[in-house]
Amino acid sequence: MILEELKLTNFRNYGSAAIRWSPGVNMIRGDNAQGKTNLLEAIAFLSTFVSFRKSAAAELIKKDRDFFLIRSAFTAASSPRTLNVAYSAETRYKIRLDGEEKRRAAPLVGILNTVVFSPDDLMLMKGRPDDRRRFLDGEIVQTAPSSQVIFHRYQKALRQRNAVLKGGFSRAAAELLNAYDLQLAENGAMILIRRKEILERLQPLVRLAHRRITGGSEELRLTYEGGLESFFEKKHPFESWRDGFLERLKAARETDFQRGFTSFGPHRDDIRFFINDDDIRRFGSQGQQRTASLALKIGELELMKGQRGEYPILLLDDVLSELDESRREALISVINGKVQTFVTDTGSEKIFQDAVEYRVKSGEIRPL
To answer: Rounded CA gap, 335 and 197, in Å?
Structure first.
Protein backbone atom coordinates (compact mmCIF):
# COMPACT_ATOMS: atom_id res chain seq x y z
CA MET A 1 0.00 0.00 0.00
CA ILE A 2 1.51 3.31 -1.12
CA LEU A 3 0.35 6.86 -0.39
CA GLU A 4 1.37 8.87 -3.43
CA GLU A 5 -0.07 12.31 -2.75
CA LEU A 6 -1.57 14.16 0.19
CA LYS A 7 -3.34 17.54 0.03
CA LEU A 8 -4.45 19.39 3.14
CA THR A 9 -6.77 22.36 3.53
CA ASN A 10 -7.33 23.95 6.95
CA PHE A 11 -6.00 20.89 8.78
CA ARG A 12 -4.39 21.73 12.13
CA ASN A 13 -1.75 24.40 11.35
CA TYR A 14 -1.82 23.78 7.58
CA GLY A 15 -3.80 26.31 5.57
CA SER A 16 -2.90 24.63 2.30
CA ALA A 17 -0.34 21.93 1.49
CA ALA A 18 0.22 19.47 -1.34
CA ILE A 19 2.93 16.81 -1.07
CA ARG A 20 4.00 13.94 -3.29
CA TRP A 21 5.62 11.12 -1.35
CA SER A 22 8.30 8.53 -1.93
CA PRO A 23 7.16 4.87 -1.94
CA GLY A 24 10.05 4.15 0.44
CA VAL A 25 11.01 6.12 3.54
CA ASN A 26 9.86 9.72 3.95
CA MET A 27 11.84 11.57 6.62
CA ILE A 28 9.97 14.64 7.90
CA ARG A 29 12.30 16.95 9.80
CA GLY A 30 11.70 20.14 11.77
CA ASP A 31 11.63 21.68 15.20
CA ASN A 32 8.93 20.87 17.71
CA ALA A 33 5.42 22.35 17.24
CA GLN A 34 5.92 23.06 13.52
CA GLY A 35 3.43 20.50 12.16
CA LYS A 36 5.34 17.25 11.65
CA THR A 37 2.98 15.10 13.70
CA ASN A 38 0.00 16.83 12.07
CA LEU A 39 1.00 15.30 8.73
CA LEU A 40 1.06 11.82 10.23
CA GLU A 41 -2.24 12.51 11.95
CA ALA A 42 -3.83 13.42 8.59
CA ILE A 43 -2.57 10.19 7.00
CA ALA A 44 -3.80 8.07 9.90
CA PHE A 45 -7.15 9.89 9.83
CA LEU A 46 -7.73 8.54 6.31
CA SER A 47 -7.38 5.07 7.76
CA THR A 48 -9.70 5.24 10.77
CA PHE A 49 -11.51 8.63 10.58
CA VAL A 50 -10.41 9.38 14.14
CA SER A 51 -7.29 11.09 15.48
CA PHE A 52 -4.61 8.85 16.96
CA ARG A 53 -3.95 11.78 19.34
CA LYS A 54 -7.49 11.30 20.70
CA SER A 55 -8.64 14.71 19.45
CA ALA A 56 -12.20 15.30 18.33
CA ALA A 57 -12.68 15.97 14.61
CA ALA A 58 -13.67 19.58 15.28
CA GLU A 59 -10.29 20.14 16.97
CA LEU A 60 -8.48 19.27 13.73
CA ILE A 61 -9.86 22.36 11.96
CA LYS A 62 -7.38 25.20 11.60
CA LYS A 63 -8.05 28.11 13.91
CA ASP A 64 -10.60 30.63 12.56
CA ARG A 65 -11.72 28.23 9.79
CA ASP A 66 -14.91 26.20 9.72
CA PHE A 67 -13.85 23.01 7.90
CA PHE A 68 -10.90 20.84 6.99
CA LEU A 69 -10.27 18.78 3.88
CA ILE A 70 -7.83 15.88 3.36
CA ARG A 71 -7.35 14.62 -0.18
CA SER A 72 -5.23 11.62 -1.07
CA ALA A 73 -4.12 9.46 -3.96
CA PHE A 74 -2.82 6.00 -3.09
CA THR A 75 -2.26 2.53 -4.49
CA ALA A 76 -3.82 -0.54 -2.90
CA ALA A 77 -3.55 -4.05 -4.35
CA SER A 78 -1.81 -2.49 -7.38
CA SER A 79 -4.88 -0.35 -8.14
CA PRO A 80 -4.87 3.49 -8.06
CA ARG A 81 -7.41 4.96 -5.68
CA THR A 82 -8.44 8.32 -4.22
CA LEU A 83 -9.93 9.12 -0.84
CA ASN A 84 -11.08 12.61 0.20
CA VAL A 85 -12.43 13.48 3.64
CA ALA A 86 -14.00 16.81 4.59
CA TYR A 87 -15.38 17.74 7.98
CA SER A 88 -17.29 20.71 9.36
CA ALA A 89 -19.42 21.15 12.45
CA GLU A 90 -22.41 21.97 10.26
CA THR A 91 -22.30 19.16 7.70
CA ARG A 92 -20.15 16.65 9.61
CA TYR A 93 -18.29 14.24 7.33
CA LYS A 94 -18.26 14.32 3.54
CA ILE A 95 -16.28 11.46 2.04
CA ARG A 96 -15.50 10.56 -1.56
CA LEU A 97 -13.86 7.27 -2.46
CA ASP A 98 -12.61 7.02 -6.05
CA GLY A 99 -14.79 10.02 -6.91
CA GLU A 100 -17.97 8.50 -5.48
CA GLU A 101 -19.64 10.15 -2.51
CA LYS A 102 -20.12 7.87 0.50
CA ARG A 103 -22.80 8.36 3.11
CA ARG A 104 -21.03 6.68 6.04
CA ALA A 105 -17.43 6.54 7.21
CA ALA A 106 -17.62 3.24 9.11
CA PRO A 107 -17.55 0.88 6.09
CA LEU A 108 -14.48 2.72 4.73
CA VAL A 109 -12.26 2.11 7.76
CA GLY A 110 -9.19 0.20 6.63
CA ILE A 111 -9.52 1.07 2.95
CA LEU A 112 -6.15 2.70 3.54
CA ASN A 113 -4.30 0.82 6.30
CA THR A 114 -1.83 2.46 8.66
CA VAL A 115 0.20 1.45 11.70
CA VAL A 116 1.19 4.28 14.06
CA PHE A 117 4.19 3.99 16.39
CA SER A 118 4.55 6.91 18.79
CA PRO A 119 6.28 7.51 22.16
CA ASP A 120 2.93 6.75 23.84
CA ASP A 121 3.14 3.21 22.45
CA LEU A 122 6.42 2.69 24.30
CA MET A 123 4.38 3.06 27.50
CA LEU A 124 1.68 0.62 26.38
CA MET A 125 2.97 -2.19 28.61
CA LYS A 126 2.76 -0.12 31.80
CA GLY A 127 0.03 2.26 30.69
CA ARG A 128 -3.70 2.16 31.31
CA PRO A 129 -5.84 -0.88 30.44
CA ASP A 130 -8.05 1.23 28.16
CA ASP A 131 -5.01 2.00 25.98
CA ARG A 132 -4.33 -1.71 25.54
CA ARG A 133 -7.99 -2.39 24.82
CA ARG A 134 -7.98 0.44 22.28
CA PHE A 135 -4.94 -1.09 20.57
CA LEU A 136 -6.56 -4.52 20.32
CA ASP A 137 -9.93 -3.19 19.14
CA GLY A 138 -8.19 -0.97 16.60
CA GLU A 139 -6.65 -4.08 15.07
CA ILE A 140 -10.05 -5.72 14.92
CA VAL A 141 -11.69 -2.75 13.20
CA GLN A 142 -8.91 -2.22 10.64
CA THR A 143 -8.87 -5.90 9.66
CA ALA A 144 -12.66 -6.33 9.88
CA PRO A 145 -14.39 -2.91 9.53
CA SER A 146 -17.85 -4.44 9.94
CA SER A 147 -16.92 -5.07 13.59
CA GLN A 148 -17.57 -1.39 14.31
CA VAL A 149 -21.30 -2.12 14.42
CA ILE A 150 -20.75 -4.59 17.25
CA PHE A 151 -18.73 -2.08 19.27
CA HIS A 152 -21.37 0.62 18.77
CA ARG A 153 -24.19 -1.71 19.85
CA TYR A 154 -22.24 -2.79 22.90
CA GLN A 155 -21.50 0.80 23.97
CA LYS A 156 -25.15 1.79 23.50
CA ALA A 157 -26.37 -1.13 25.63
CA LEU A 158 -23.69 -0.36 28.23
CA ARG A 159 -24.80 3.29 28.52
CA GLN A 160 -28.43 2.22 28.89
CA ARG A 161 -27.61 -0.39 31.52
CA ASN A 162 -25.46 2.03 33.52
CA ALA A 163 -28.24 4.63 33.44
CA VAL A 164 -30.61 2.10 35.01
CA LEU A 165 -28.04 1.10 37.64
CA LYS A 166 -27.47 4.71 38.67
CA GLY A 167 -31.21 5.08 39.34
CA GLY A 168 -31.04 2.43 42.05
CA PHE A 169 -32.77 -0.90 42.52
CA SER A 170 -36.47 -1.40 41.84
CA ARG A 171 -38.61 -4.10 40.27
CA ALA A 172 -38.98 -2.02 37.10
CA ALA A 173 -35.21 -1.46 36.97
CA ALA A 174 -34.60 -5.21 37.30
CA GLU A 175 -36.96 -5.86 34.38
CA LEU A 176 -35.13 -3.31 32.25
CA LEU A 177 -31.79 -4.90 33.10
CA ASN A 178 -32.97 -8.26 31.81
CA ALA A 179 -33.37 -6.73 28.35
CA TYR A 180 -30.14 -4.75 28.46
CA ASP A 181 -28.20 -7.74 29.82
CA LEU A 182 -29.14 -9.79 26.78
CA GLN A 183 -28.07 -7.01 24.38
CA LEU A 184 -24.83 -6.55 26.29
CA ALA A 185 -24.13 -10.28 26.38
CA GLU A 186 -24.80 -10.86 22.67
CA ASN A 187 -22.57 -8.01 21.51
CA GLY A 188 -20.02 -8.43 24.29
CA ALA A 189 -19.62 -12.10 23.44
CA MET A 190 -18.95 -11.18 19.81
CA ILE A 191 -16.31 -8.63 20.90
CA LEU A 192 -14.58 -11.25 23.06
CA ILE A 193 -14.63 -13.77 20.22
CA ARG A 194 -13.06 -11.20 17.87
CA ARG A 195 -10.44 -10.34 20.49
CA LYS A 196 -9.62 -14.02 20.90
CA GLU A 197 -9.25 -14.43 17.13
CA ILE A 198 -6.99 -11.38 16.74
CA LEU A 199 -4.80 -12.40 19.69
CA GLU A 200 -4.38 -15.90 18.27
CA ARG A 201 -3.19 -14.41 14.99
CA LEU A 202 -1.07 -11.68 16.57
CA GLN A 203 0.65 -13.72 19.25
CA PRO A 204 2.97 -15.86 17.06
CA LEU A 205 3.94 -12.83 14.96
CA VAL A 206 4.85 -10.79 18.05
CA ARG A 207 6.76 -13.69 19.62
CA LEU A 208 8.78 -14.20 16.44
CA ALA A 209 9.61 -10.50 16.19
CA HIS A 210 10.64 -10.45 19.84
CA ARG A 211 12.93 -13.46 19.39
CA ARG A 212 14.65 -11.75 16.49
CA ILE A 213 15.22 -8.55 18.45
CA THR A 214 16.54 -10.36 21.54
CA GLY A 215 18.46 -13.07 19.71
CA GLY A 216 16.18 -15.69 21.22
CA SER A 217 17.27 -14.90 24.79
CA GLU A 218 13.77 -13.92 25.91
CA GLU A 219 10.27 -15.20 25.23
CA LEU A 220 7.32 -12.78 25.01
CA ARG A 221 3.81 -13.98 25.77
CA LEU A 222 0.44 -12.20 25.68
CA THR A 223 -2.53 -13.25 27.78
CA TYR A 224 -6.08 -11.96 28.10
CA GLU A 225 -7.35 -10.85 31.49
CA GLY A 226 -11.07 -10.59 32.22
CA GLY A 227 -14.08 -12.42 33.52
CA LEU A 228 -14.16 -14.95 30.69
CA GLU A 229 -10.44 -15.43 30.06
CA SER A 230 -10.83 -19.21 30.47
CA PHE A 231 -12.86 -19.15 27.23
CA PHE A 232 -9.72 -17.95 25.43
CA GLU A 233 -8.01 -21.29 26.04
CA LYS A 234 -10.37 -23.50 24.01
CA LYS A 235 -12.93 -23.19 21.24
CA HIS A 236 -16.49 -22.49 22.33
CA PRO A 237 -19.63 -21.79 20.28
CA PHE A 238 -21.14 -18.32 20.39
CA GLU A 239 -24.00 -19.51 22.61
CA SER A 240 -21.53 -20.55 25.32
CA TRP A 241 -19.84 -17.15 25.27
CA ARG A 242 -23.20 -15.38 25.44
CA ASP A 243 -24.55 -17.58 28.24
CA GLY A 244 -21.32 -17.28 30.22
CA PHE A 245 -21.52 -13.51 29.81
CA LEU A 246 -25.12 -13.45 31.05
CA GLU A 247 -24.22 -15.52 34.10
CA ARG A 248 -21.48 -13.09 35.06
CA LEU A 249 -23.79 -10.09 34.61
CA LYS A 250 -26.44 -11.67 36.82
CA ALA A 251 -23.88 -12.62 39.47
CA ALA A 252 -22.62 -9.03 39.59
CA ARG A 253 -26.05 -7.35 39.49
CA GLU A 254 -26.30 -6.57 43.21
CA THR A 255 -22.76 -5.15 43.26
CA ASP A 256 -23.46 -3.16 40.08
CA PHE A 257 -26.51 -1.53 41.66
CA GLN A 258 -24.40 -0.54 44.66
CA ARG A 259 -21.65 0.91 42.48
CA GLY A 260 -23.88 2.41 39.82
CA PHE A 261 -22.02 0.94 36.84
CA THR A 262 -21.42 -2.34 34.99
CA SER A 263 -18.40 -4.03 36.53
CA PHE A 264 -18.02 -6.89 34.04
CA GLY A 265 -17.43 -6.98 30.30
CA PRO A 266 -14.87 -6.25 27.58
CA HIS A 267 -14.87 -2.56 28.61
CA ARG A 268 -13.13 -3.70 31.83
CA ASP A 269 -10.72 -6.33 30.50
CA ASP A 270 -6.98 -6.10 29.89
CA ILE A 271 -4.04 -7.68 28.07
CA ARG A 272 -0.98 -8.77 30.03
CA PHE A 273 2.54 -9.16 28.66
CA PHE A 274 5.06 -11.62 30.06
CA ILE A 275 8.77 -12.06 29.36
CA ASN A 276 10.01 -15.48 30.46
CA ASP A 277 6.87 -15.70 32.64
CA ASP A 278 7.56 -12.39 34.41
CA ASP A 279 4.83 -9.73 34.15
CA ILE A 280 6.37 -6.77 32.28
CA ARG A 281 4.09 -4.36 34.10
CA ARG A 282 5.57 -5.32 37.45
CA PHE A 283 9.04 -6.64 36.71
CA GLY A 284 10.05 -5.51 33.23
CA SER A 285 12.91 -3.06 32.74
CA GLN A 286 12.44 -0.03 30.50
CA GLY A 287 14.49 -1.78 27.82
CA GLN A 288 12.28 -4.87 27.99
CA GLN A 289 9.15 -2.74 27.77
CA ARG A 290 10.46 -0.97 24.68
CA THR A 291 11.51 -4.23 23.06
CA ALA A 292 8.06 -5.68 23.67
CA SER A 293 6.40 -2.54 22.27
CA LEU A 294 8.57 -2.72 19.16
CA ALA A 295 7.78 -6.43 18.72
CA LEU A 296 4.09 -5.60 19.05
CA LYS A 297 4.29 -3.02 16.25
CA ILE A 298 6.25 -5.37 13.98
CA GLY A 299 3.65 -8.04 14.68
CA GLU A 300 0.93 -5.54 13.80
CA LEU A 301 2.60 -4.85 10.45
CA GLU A 302 2.82 -8.56 9.66
CA LEU A 303 -0.76 -9.16 10.78
CA MET A 304 -2.12 -6.55 8.37
CA LYS A 305 0.06 -7.86 5.57
CA GLY A 306 -1.39 -11.33 6.15
CA GLN A 307 -4.89 -9.89 6.06
CA ARG A 308 -4.51 -7.61 3.03
CA GLY A 309 -1.67 -9.25 1.10
CA GLU A 310 0.43 -6.09 1.35
CA TYR A 311 2.04 -4.05 4.09
CA PRO A 312 0.17 -1.09 5.56
CA ILE A 313 1.70 2.39 5.72
CA LEU A 314 3.94 2.82 8.76
CA LEU A 315 3.92 6.12 10.67
CA LEU A 316 6.82 6.63 13.11
CA ASP A 317 6.13 9.74 15.17
CA ASP A 318 9.31 10.91 16.89
CA VAL A 319 10.01 7.39 18.13
CA LEU A 320 13.42 6.51 16.66
CA SER A 321 15.22 8.75 19.14
CA GLU A 322 13.63 6.69 21.92
CA LEU A 323 15.08 3.41 20.60
CA ASP A 324 18.66 2.29 21.10
CA GLU A 325 20.77 1.17 18.14
CA SER A 326 19.88 -2.54 18.28
CA ARG A 327 16.13 -1.91 18.44
CA ARG A 328 16.38 0.72 15.73
CA GLU A 329 18.23 -1.72 13.47
CA ALA A 330 15.59 -4.39 14.13
CA LEU A 331 12.87 -2.00 12.98
CA ILE A 332 14.85 -0.85 9.94
CA SER A 333 15.41 -4.46 8.87
CA VAL A 334 11.64 -4.93 8.68
CA ILE A 335 11.00 -1.65 6.88
CA ASN A 336 13.74 -1.55 4.25
CA GLY A 337 12.36 -1.96 0.75
CA LYS A 338 9.05 -3.40 1.98
CA VAL A 339 7.03 -0.81 3.88
CA GLN A 340 6.26 2.78 2.93
CA THR A 341 7.28 4.70 6.03
CA PHE A 342 6.79 8.24 7.32
CA VAL A 343 9.22 9.32 10.03
CA THR A 344 9.17 12.55 12.04
CA ASP A 345 12.41 13.71 13.63
CA THR A 346 13.87 16.90 15.10
CA GLY A 347 17.50 16.03 14.35
CA SER A 348 19.59 15.71 11.22
CA GLU A 349 21.03 12.21 11.67
CA LYS A 350 21.08 10.09 8.49
CA ILE A 351 19.13 7.07 9.75
CA PHE A 352 17.78 5.72 6.45
CA GLN A 353 20.25 5.88 3.58
CA ASP A 354 17.67 6.12 0.78
CA ALA A 355 15.10 8.29 2.55
CA VAL A 356 13.50 11.28 0.83
CA GLU A 357 13.69 14.19 3.25
CA TYR A 358 11.30 17.07 3.89
CA ARG A 359 11.49 20.14 6.12
CA VAL A 360 8.46 21.41 8.02
CA LYS A 361 8.29 24.91 9.44
CA SER A 362 5.20 26.79 10.66
CA GLY A 363 2.77 24.58 8.78
CA GLU A 364 4.68 24.59 5.50
CA ILE A 365 6.50 21.60 4.04
CA ARG A 366 9.17 21.46 1.33
CA PRO A 367 11.51 18.74 0.06
CA LEU A 368 15.18 19.03 1.01
So the answer is: 26
